[in-house]
Every structure is written in C-alpha cells, then in structure tokens.
Design brief:
The strands form 2 sheets. A 5-stranded parallel sheet has the order 2-7-1-8-9, with helices on both faces. Strands 4-3-6-5 form a 4-stranded mixed sheet. The chain is an alpha/beta fold and 192 residues long. The chain has 8 helices and 9 strands. Bound molecules: adenosine-5'-diphosphate (ADP) and guanosine-5'-monophosphate.
Length: 192
C-alpha cells in the first residue's frame, strides 16, 4: 500500500512529570515540522510564559465539567489535582485532514485512547533513574514543593501503567531519545 494512502495513526507520548516529554517532543517537532502536537484543555493555572490556545486551552472547572457533560472529550483525566482533556473534534478533524498528530498526555488518558482507537501507538518516556527524574522536576523551577510531591507520588502507578504501552524510550541523552522516538514513529508509519 502506498504510504500516502495509509490510515493516519495517532501517536501518544506519556511519562512522569519532569521526565522530559516536552523537551524530547520539541526536538522531534523541530526535525519533523509536518507533525502537529495536540493542544489539550486543562484546569491548571498557566505557568509563567504559557499562552492560552498555544500551550493549553486553560478552562475553569465549570467549563471543563461542561465539556465532560457534553461528551466533548476523546479522553480526560485528573492528574495531581488538576483535570486535563483532549477534545474529540480537534483530533477527528486532524485525522480526517490526513495530518500527523501527537498527543502528550498522562498514562490514564493514553490507555483511554488505546481502548477507543486500538491503532494508536503509545510511547512511554522513562527517566534514567528516579533520582534524575526528581532532579529534573525540581530543576525546572515551575512547581512549588507540594505540587512536586503530588507529582512524584504518581510515578509508581505511572510505571505500572507503562507496562501496557507499545514502546519505551529512556530519556538519558537527549539527542538519543529524540532519535529513538523518530525511529519508532517512522517505523510505525512505514508499517501502514
Ligand atoms: P516534562 O514535559 O516531561 O514534564 P520537561 O520537558 O519540562 O519535562 O523537562 C523537565 C526538565 O528536564 C527541563 O528542565 C528540561 O530542560 C530537562 N531535561 C529534559 N530532557 C533532558 C535530558 N535528556 N537531559 C537533561 N535534562 C533534560
Ligand atoms: P503539566 O501540568 O506538567 O503540563 O501536565 C501534567 C500531566 O498532564 C502530564 O503528564 C501531561 O502529559 C498530562 N496531560 C497534558 N494534557 C493532557 C490531556 O489532554 N489529557 C490527559 N489525560 N493528560 C494530559
């Protein structure tokens, strides 16, 4: 089958907070500008420098609940005290237009996507060690101590859920991690 006539696959990237998902994806997207990163909705407050409609659609709790009640989400989850979700309409539109799309979402959301779209490819990003993960999360200076603790508490269950993912990438050396992600995605696209 011709590559262009293949059904587009959804690629889903997950990993614990601070592992480097955003950094690896930024590197991948710079080299592969044909890929689009899905913009999620969240109830969390914007970090310094984050822009509504670019990093996230920042919703109030009421707006988010409204989207749940009206069945607007492909998936949604509560993570460390905030809610995050991916709008169905946006993803379906991208897939219909034949766009290559990546979701960067938590492990609960990733498994929900896989249930609904078994052809979705789930990729989990591992840290080289838990200590490195903690150092990266702290070194980013974007969360206060209680938020860091809440996020670290999620790690064990995230690693358990990762057993059900299709691929693993260890983000030790950044360039290697980007290259590995690229190999996985190109390989999956060639499989058709
Ligand atoms: P996530 O999106 O998974 O929460 P980030 O991409 O924000 O994580 O990365 C967390 C921190 O770790 C950032 O300060 C980033 O610069 C750093 N980082 C990411 N990948 C690496 C790497 N391979 N080596 C060293 N530092 C990294
Ligand atoms: P952060 O607050 O650091 O931006 O994101 C916290 C967690 O929420 C990360 O694991 C991130 O992947 C996840 N996340 C971001 N968007 C979504 C989404 O639309 N759905 C789900 N389930 N998780 C998301």
């Amino acid at each position: 089958m011709n590559k262009n006539s293949c059904k587009k696959k959804l690629f889903v990237i997950s990993g614990s907070s601070g592992v480097g998902k955003g950094t690896v994806l930024k590197g991948f997207l710079t080299k592969n500008p044909n890929f689009m990163l899905s913009i999620s909705c969240t109830t969390r407050a914007p970090r310094r420098g984050e822009v509504d409609g670019v990093n996230y659609f920042f919703l109030t709790k009421e707006e988010f609940q409204n989207c749940i009640d009206n069945n607007k989400f492909l998936e949604w989850a509560e993570f460390a005290g905030n809610r995050y979700g991916t709008k169905k309409k946006y993803i379906n539109q991208c897939l219909e237009e034949g766009k290559d799309i990546i979701l960067e979402i938590d492990t609960q959301g990733a498994l929900q996507v896989k249930k609904q779209m078994p052809e979705a490819v789930l990729i989990f990003i591992y840290p080289p060690s838990i200590e490195t993960l903690e150092n990266r999360l702290r070194g980013r200076h974007t969360e206060d101590e209680s938020t860091i603790q809440r996020r670290l508490q999620e790690v064990k269950i995230e690693l358990e859920r990762a057993e059900n993912f299709d691929y693993k990438v260890v983000n030790d050396d950044l360039d290697n991690a980007i290259a590995e992600l690229e190999n996985i995605i190109v390989g999956e696209q060639e499989k058709c």
